[in-house]
Amino acid sequence: MAPDVPLAIVGGGPVGLVCALFASEAGLDPVVIEPRTAPIDKACGEGLMPGAWRLVRELGLEPAGADLRGVVYVQGDARAEHRFRRATGRGVARVELHAAVAARVAERGIQVIPGRVDAVERHDDHVTLSGPGLDPLTAGHVIGADGLHSRVRELVGLGARGQQASARRFGLRRHYTLAPWTDNIEVRWTPNAEFYVTPLGPELIGVALLGRRGTDFATVLADEPELAALLRADAAGDSPAQVGGVRGAGPLLQRTTARTAGRVLLVGDASGYVDALTGEGLRLGFAQAKAAIAAIVAGDVRRYEREWLSITRDFRALTSALVLAARSPLRRAIVPAAVRLPGVYGGIVERLAR
């Protein structure tokens, strides 16, 4: 049978919308399925590594934000800093990035269907999607770009067993109307969690906290008095500069058994996620989007599986090892080791920033 559309992208976040833009450039006529209205906020570090920023600019987008020159790890008096060698990154508030990409999708005339996928039926020559807002819809291929808790991933049986509850990590994020004191992604290590400070504009910074379930922002901030002073935070963790509410996400680690199932492909967080330590999630998601579209155009979906493994290899190896160390008695030695071995630390940052 002839499908209704050649490509349906489930998930209208930045990665899903970038998929749609790449598909449109490749001559496909994609539709995006997303029940929420853009822009959609999300708890994340909001730092685009140089590779992600390059891809955003290749799409002709210049969302408002702040240049990022490197990554610095801070633990007490220990400070390991690496400045990007070849290019800058960009700190962009999530809603600013999403709004910019959504506007470009609208300019291109790409249809966004306000629906939700509750069922996926796979056939030899098409995929049928059913759910509220869908009639149902048949597509030649489907890309699942629906985030950490991907419904598509579960419906096609690509989800793997998760972590033990005691090991799961979660994220919180707050915004502050303060002039940034750094042009780095600043990762501040406390005994049990990490803060990620990202400049987002002349008078805006984002502070994300990564820790175990139940981690309290104010409690962890008390372990980082220098940051608390910079944020002008009181003993309760409150600051007159704080704007908006606290966003949360997790559990962050998501595993998959594969990234393709017939004519269904997974990209971005839906394809698997390791706790980020430098803000490389969007870089990987955008690179996966480009690879997924290229595989569909080439008529070789399995090619994407190979490309996905290549794109994420450094990320999976380096970040997984660092996360493992961060959960072990070696945690307190990570930042001092980065200080003593600046070449090694810088090499890791550069590989993750490409």
Quick overview:
With 354 residues, this protein is an alpha/beta fold. The protein has helices at 14-25, 50-58, 94-107, 151-155, 217-222, 225-230, 281-298, 301-326, 334-340, 342-353; strands at 5-10, 30-33, 47-48, 66-68, 70-75, 78-83, 89-91, 111-113, 119-122, 127-130, 137-144, 169-176, 184-189, 194-201, 204-212, 242-249, 260-261, 264-266.
Main β-sheet: number of strands, strand sense, barrel status? Answer: 8 strands, mixed
Shape category: globular
Q: Would you give the CATH topology of the domain at 5-50 and 92-162 and 252-329?
A: FAD/NAD(P)-binding domain
- State the secondary-structure class: alpha/beta
Determine the mean pLDDT: 87
Distance between the termini: 42 Å
Number of E-type strands: 18
Question: Can you offer a commentary on this structure?
Answer:
The chain is of the alpha/beta class. Helix content is 32%, strand content 26%. Helix 1 packs parallel to helix 3 (94-107), helix 1 (14-25) runs parallel beside helix 7 and helix 2 packs across helix 7 (281-298). The chain has a domain at 5-50 and 92-162 and 252-329: FAD/NAD(P)-binding domain, CATH 3.50.50. It has helices at residues 14-25, 50-58, 94-107, 151-155, 217-222, 225-230, 281-298, 301-326, 334-340, 342-353, and strands spanning 5-10, 30-33, 47-48, 66-68, 70-75, 78-83, 89-91, 111-113, 119-122, 127-130, 137-144, 169-176, 184-189, 194-201, 204-212, 242-249, 260-261, 264-266. A hairpin with a 2-residue loop joins strand 17 and strand 18. Strands 1, 2, 8, 9, 10, 11, 17 and 18 form an eight-stranded mixed beta sheet that branches. A seven-stranded mixed beta sheet has the order 6-5-13-14-15-12-16. Strands 3-7-4 form a three-stranded antiparallel beta sheet. The relative contact order is 0.18. It is built from ten helices and 18 strands. The protein is globular.
